[in-house]
Amino acid sequence: MWREGDVPGGSTRYFVRALGDLDPLAPPDPDEDAAPLAVLLHGWPQDGSSWARVAPLLVDAGYRVACPDLKGFGRSDAPRRGYDPATLADELSQLIRELGARKAVVVGHDWGGAVALATAFRHPGRVRALVTVSSPFRQLDLTAAWHIPLLNLPIAPEVAFKLASGPLTRVVIRHAAEDDTVFDDESLARYASSVASAPRGWLSYYRQLSRRAVVDWGVRRIRRVVPVLADPEGPHRLRVPAVVVWGELDRVTPFHLAVRVAHDLDVDLVPVPGVGHFVHEEAPQALVDAVHALVERVDADRPAGPNDRGWEQNRRPTATS
Q: What is the C-alpha separation between 194 and 272, in angstroms, rounded?
């Protein structure tokens, strides 16, 4: 059964939905032999409830699962400041600790992937394994993500999503998803409410984090035109095991970006055929399989400690087991 509660991440209050042996209001002590924690971070324009198809599959595999509303979304705090990558990473690191874990498997979709990645770079000791899902890194395709410049405009986006979040959210999700039948009226209304509550908060992701990506995109374009300006940056090597998952029919963050992201991070790419932007809702089992494969590889490569049980050791029997 889902449990809900407010959990602090630094000075920010996060609204968390939890499944499995996890009560967000009374997490176990991190020194106890609890099941491993998986933290699932949503993107725009959604909230933590978007993981409703993925979370039970991870619980069946022996995980405690936490699905917070990102800062600025839904029922979490939406302060005016603190949306830079360092602050968001620090807050997620503290949130993991508040949920009673030393480290967690972190899965992030869209903007949630950007927050997850920032945390893996800044706090690698908090991240057992990282899975980013349809989440650009260092570059954008503005011919597909044409909404990003619009969301960087002053005032207009706030007014639009305050007055018409329902129709706008429906249009965005229907466009970005290949299989939009997985989104019922209830979920669409919930997502519309998530982005209508405090649009100035979530717009900060576009007005701060996306600007770096836009600059990187511009620099890459210039370097392609002027060959003498060679790219001095090699892969950004993570200190945690990671994988990139991407829908092959993504119309918002096209699949060609996935190849570059996996190259730049020097990690494996898992393409999901026939799926659009919302892999976790359109193909939840494919995403869980990617998480499963990564964690199995981690456990195979690392000796188990007294409080570091592997995936199979925590796997619960299912109806078909």
A: 27
